[in-house]
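[#protein-structures] MJ: dropping Beta-xylosidase, GH43 family here for a structure pass
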Amino acid sequence: MRVGRQRVVAALAAGALLLGTAPPQASAAAPDNGLVAEYLFNQSDGASVPNRADGSSFGPATVQNLQAGDWTGTSLRLRGGAKTSTGDWVELPDDLLVGATSATVTAEVKASAAMLNTFHFLWNIGNDSAATEYLFASLNCGSGRSPLVGLKTGGVERLFAQGSCGVTADTWTNVTSVVDGEAGTASLYLDGVRVATGAVASTPADVADQSLNTIGRAPWPDPLFAGSIASFRVYDRALTASEIEAVSATDAALNTAEIATKAQAVLTGLNLVDITTSTHLDLPTAGGKVTWSSSDPTVVAVDGTVNAPVAGQPGVEVELTATASVRGQSASQSIVVTVEPSTETAQQRVERLAQQYVVEPVVASGYELPTAPQGTTVAVLAVTGAVLSDGALTTDGDTAVPATVRVRVTDPATTANTEREFQVDVHPSGARTLLAYDRVPTTVAEANNADVALSMHLALDDGESWAPLNENYGIFFPKTASTPPASGTTEAILRSLRNPHLFRLADGTFGVVATRTARGGAADGTQASQVLFATSSDLLSYREVAMVNVGVSGGVNDPAAVWDSAAGHYVVSWTSDGGAPMYVTFGDLADQSTRGVPQRGSLPSFTVDGSGIANFGSGNRVVVSDEAAAALEVRFGRVTNTTVDAFDEVSIAKGSALTSAELPERADLTYSDGSTDTRAVEWDAADIAAVDTSTPGSYEVTGTVKQPTYPTPFADERADPSVFSFDWNGQQKFLMIATEDLNMNPIDPANGPHMPFRWADTIEDLSDDAIAAGRNTEVDLLKAGDTDAYGAAMTGCFWAPEFHVIDDTLSILFMPCYNGSNGRPDMWTGRASIIQLKKDAAGNDLDPSVATNWTKAERVVKADGSILNPIQNISLDMTYFEDSGQAYYSWQMLGSIFIAKMDPANPTRLTSEPVRIVVPEYAWDNTIAEGPNVHVRDGKLYLIYSGSTVGDSYTTGLAMADAGEGVDLTSPSAWTKLNYPIQKSGIFNGTWQLGTGHGMWSEDEDGNLLYVFHARTNHNGLSGRDTFVRRVHFAADGLPIFDLEANEEVSPGNRAVKVTVVVEAGTALDVEASVTTRCVAGRVTPVVRVTNSESVPVAVALAAPFGSKTLTVAAGRSSSAAFTVRSGDLAAGTLSVSAATEDGLSTAESSVAYEAASCS
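AK: finished. structure tokens for Beta-xylosidase, GH43 family:
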């Protein structure tokens, strides 16, 4: 068959095939140095498995609950089941690694599909208790986990997991766990390749009690391991990488037939057939599992490049051989490729080659035009709107200008040519440039694990180097491969990306293409033929459009895209798995029907050097406007305080008292992004006392902008914290409650499940420091064994308690749990519940620190009385809020955030059906969205929630909705969720805080908005989550900032403030007085008449030898006061008159002489 385009080497029909299985490559044998136990499970019967390690003092392993059929002859089948069932497991000798400071444990296993989605221990070095110590490995890929090695000592557990699952069910896998005491690391290897590593301070020697070492059985109530095991080895040293590779190769030989079958299945899946072609081939590689060889690489190269004979020459046959390799076992298949002479005309050829010459639609002055595509020459015919200087487009203006570039592309081999004309916006020299890139994953301790690193990051050119935005954290993350089902998001549908490429769309907005991967970076199957495509109007939010099929199957690596304004289409380019450069055109990237024919050839390189960016992977740059760059800096840059407004003068009347109440209460602050905020001011008491209010003049009072510094951590081993400002019968009190999380075991902690409560007059006095200083104590409102309203004993959890005032009643929403089938607390029995504070007969709140003053716990149920979660039973993390007179509950179940209406008068019943409004759909909020909490501000509802599983990778997401009448908050469409976390692990005030999440909005004594949350630490040698407190700032774009550091919140130079206090002498008042006398019963009676000509009333004080009086004279009126003199004679004298306005700022002082009088 003759074809005129690139051929894809795959078909449904069978062709002439040469099949064969290649022998495994020779490799080194598994080492025996340091080998203390080796068990090969290749016997056909018997429960005792001998230890084959030469010279070892340890005896055989024993299969417990062995049944007929468990032995296969090459392995032991492990049937699984509940821990207390009759499922089989292997008991190993005691004390295998007692005293060992390093160790390596290897296992050749095959896990069932169920095991990849549930908690289990593949093996355990330790004892039958999970409380304090063990060394183990697990292949669980469910519940946000992935294959890991874990070491728990002294009650502190450290887990080291790879970024994605990487294990296929029912497939032999070599699992090797290494603890290197000298290096202080723990590592996990799968099939001889290291997939996880991290620092660890403890060693296997710290697992002191090794009285029950096992295969397939956990010290937790996890199910028994289900699958098969072929070998198990224990070394008392850390094997090297090459030795671990040798172990993997040795163990692969135990099941060569099965592994070789897997290799053959890879080839079978390619559907290879013989081919006739005259152009390049797209050779599939099955994600790197297949390599190609050629009998004549000069005609058909191993990357699919075809050198066709010229017209008139005969065709050439070449044999291509595909070889698939799986763990040293391989299978090969050959096909015949008949290469016929090319039928492409000279004009078709130059038109094809010219497609590789594209001028970007938006550039900066100084942009160098692309070089000619290979095999062509390019001549610039005309440039308008800009200047062409030494091959570069330039402009002298300070604004972007439209330009056109017309070129002629010539094929020297045929002299055929074609012309192209591009429309280009040329920005001025020094225009802002944006770098889009991914990173090389490192560790979760650096907030750069694969879930974060494998996303699109952004950095702005600051003129000298790249300045990463968002603290070098991801900004665009791909969504799940499919919409999460009602039962919740699973690991299998989570996705990451590599090699993001940012480009301009035809309308000037932005597009992104990237290679989508499984979570953590492994292939998800799309890389063979597709690219991820998303759009953004502002680079602040992103819309994932589609997976775009580019028409090949041989791999799509390092994709790039550019708008070709000359042709009116997009050009997508990439490199195949075989290393061949490729491209294809699209009229519309969202419309597969507009795709052209994939071609071989290179476009101008779009990649750039990301020097200066830690762990830079790959990326490209685009020119952006100043406005777009500024918006990015507001959203993802650091915001800092720039100014504090000067205070207006404070005037007081002479003689009046001055306290801090007369001075400004808060300082007005301005920030680098244009946002504003206020902070309370603490005025200097000595300066206030120094103001002499009896002496008119100006005085300066200094003060300090208040920035309370809270202890870090605020409270140890207190997760899911709630701090609440409460009006307790007229007194402002601060309440705190949290989940007990001793050593990160919130279900059944070693110190007993309980609900710890604190209250105080200040937030500071809620801290551990206050308790240590004796200023406060902690009490338990609930503890294991307390019964709920239905008489059932609550035995654990007491999770995520939150304070709310519901129907004028202080309430706590929380989740208790009950004993499961193993007689211990089981989180899956948990139900969202409520307790409420009782009141006395007068309606006053009782003391909330007294446990008996609270009602019995009642469960929140649907309107019909049924449970909230009929699928999994568990419901948790319930919160409460109101909007426009309607009350709502929001909570977590099925791994997502749900909402429903409720009536505060009946707080145990919903009044509408639960609706899912936030679902985890990114690698950063993988599989869990929980802990919702709502704040209302300026007509917006801000719902924060926590994503990812608890631990060092925990993050905080944000969903927003409009507040107000007519908004249906129970509709998912009412809520908009950010693509990236609003708060994440990072350095705060100079110290790393990891796993920041499960926060709530709160308020301090001065009315400042607070963020109260937990982070995972090892503080005081404990590994649980601790409470932290920060203040919140809202940026100019309306989004909250939860990590504004102390020097950013208030610049050190702006903390000291001052105000001028002016003591006023007073303004003269138009007040007159006169004295007349008359005789009454032979005595002189002076009468004083006061006239107030002012427009405000005045207070008048009269004083004379004959007496004193005060009176108030209305505006524009007169008043008189009569005095009684005891004698008939009155000597001449003077009357003193003092008048003042009510505010004391205007006064008058006068004296009025009066004559002597006699009535005798």
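MJ: nice. Residues 819 and 840 are 35 Å apart (CA to CA).
AK: one more thing. DSSP finds eight helices and 80 strands in the chain.
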